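Dataset card, provenance and construction

Sequences and ligand SMILES were collected as paired inputs. For each pair, a complete structure of the chain with the small molecule in place was predicted and serialized as structure tokens. The example below shows a pair involving flavin-adenine dinucleotide. Curators did not alter the output after generation; any descriptive sentences attached to a record were derived from the structure itself.
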Amino acid sequence: MTILIAGGGIGGLTLALSLHERGIPCTVFEAAQEVRSLGVGINTLPHAIRELAALGLLPALDACAIRTRELRYLNRFGQGIWTEARGTHAGHDVPQFSIHRGHLHTMLWDAVRKRLGDAALITGALLTGFSQTIDSVTAHFADGRTATGTALVGADGIHSVIRRTLHPDDGGLRWNGIQMWRGAVDWPAYEGGDVMAIAGDMAEKLVLYPIAAGTRPDTRLTNWVICVRQGDGSSAPPRREDWSRPGRLAELLPHVRRFRLPFIDVEALVRATPEFFEYPMCDRDPLPWWTLGRVTLLGDAAHPMYPVGSNGASQAILDARCLAALLDGTAVPDALVAYDAERRPKTAAIVTSNRMGGPERVVDVVSERAPDGFTRLEDVIAREELAAIAGGYAAMAGFAVTPVSASGATATAR
Ligand SMILES: Cc1cc2nc3c(=O)[nH]c(=O)nc-3n(C[C@H](O)[C@H](O)[C@H](O)COP(=O)(O)OP(=O)(O)OC[C@H]3O[C@@H](n4cnc5c(N)ncnc54)[C@H](O)[C@@H]3O)c2cc1C
């Protein structure tokens, strides 16, 4: 039994490690010619970190990431709306990591190479299609190569070829009208060097978090994202979604200047960033099924979601672990059906919730009611309402520690 994995991204590589752990042979086919450290910051939540820890990767994560201590929601003037402890500080047995996507990717790639051997990772392999019989599936590549296995997993990202083949009538990418600019730069540590901050509203929002040690003990590689509403979601994005498309400073600066946070000079941070990227906030409608015979989908190929609530990479990791467990001891078609039944409804709920703003809706609600700031937060919103939004998301996305208590704006166990 050999599992063919199309796409050596976060999800595909986690699947390879998880199958190997169970003694199930697999091969990863990656379109890129070489692995480069691409992207900027992402967050990985405790439920996904627990799975990577089970693969023995906690020390490697600690070597290149930041254990996030706290998440703060603020308005654009820096007034606090909601604060919650994260990871081990919230009572989880494992941390939440803020990490450079390229560091996470390289770490997983190296682990696969070390554990499975070079032959398990085939680069320059752009999958173009597949064919299957009752007993096997054959993947077809752009250079004419083919590979045959017992299952084919489409972990080929947001522009998945396998998804398009399975669902030719899929409605395509949906842009919600928000453009994101993303960058990371070495910067003086703020608030202890392990705090994530989300400020503003859904029209203009800043997401800030350190993702690695800096060049000096008092600096951190600091990730920033500025989200700006540019459309109402009824049109296509101005430029095609490409994780590596450079952004333009002149376009971004007017938005940056609207943020006034007491602990960081956002404009100076952005100006100091040598290169940054633009990316439209896109997802796709949840699918009615992922599995057809010996073929299924995983990660962004299955359920691309808006990057609110820090769930994209985490859910890809959870997919991979679930699929590997089901493939261990169950015949392939049945295992893929069971995986689809287990993971599809859960991820569809997150896609849908993220369209409503996810937990970040706390800043939307407050800014809507108090656009010029507030004197007393409790005059704007009840603590119970804030707790219901932020805590409800954690429960739905599977990373709540304990039931939410509405006892205070500083919750500790979520
Ligand atoms: C270059 C890059 C940069 C990114 N940067 C960020 C970021 O800064 N912030 C963020 O939140 N998310 C980023 N992402 C997306 C993020 O990695 C995913 O949302 C999440 O981790 C889910 O992982 P995934 O494995 O499903 O998809 P991905 O991590 O996107 O991996 C998909 C993989 O499939 C490969 N692939 C695509 N088509 C084919 C094909 N036809 N045949 C074979 N291989 C194929 C891709 O090259 C890629 O390696 C980035 C993705 C990429 C590819």
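Derived descriptions for this record:
Residues 6-12, 29-32, 38-40, 42, 101, 125-127, 155-157, 161, 182, 243-244, 299-301, 307, 312-313, 316 surround flavin-adenine dinucleotide (CB under 6 Å).
Confidence is low (pLDDT under 50) at residues 403-414.
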